[in-house]
């Protein structure tokens, strides 16, 4: 059976970049604070989901990807390290 995982076995390829961007935000932003920012945009993702996304244990929807990009003021290409 085919499994939707990246080559490293993770369920997404942007989680590590999301964690990096979050930790580099000024002021420093916790997973809970990031979840709160997403909630203000109408995206219901809790702190635990952020943790699972960042560790690669959870898939990320296209709607969530766009919301992350808006929070971090980047493009999807930047999120996926596409040049």
Quick overview of this protein structure:
It contains five helices and no strands.
Please describe the topology of this protein.
Elements: H1 15-23, H2 31-40, H3 47-55, H4 62-72, H5 76-79
Describe the model.
The mean pLDDT is 93. The protein is built from five helices and no strands. By secondary structure, it is mostly helical.
What are the salient characteristics of this protein?
83 residues, mainly alpha, 5 helices, 0% strand
Outline the biggest β-sheet: none
Provide a count of the helices. 5
Number of β-strand runs: 0
Low-confidence stretches: none
Helix content: 40-55%
Class computed from helices, strands and strand pairing: mainly alpha
Strand content: under 5%
- Radius of gyration, in angstroms, nearest whole number: 12 Å
The pLDDT mean sits at 93
Question: What distance separates the N and C termini?
Answer: 32 Å
The succession of helices and strands, N to C, reads HHHHH
Assembly level:
single chain
Write down the overall geometry. globular
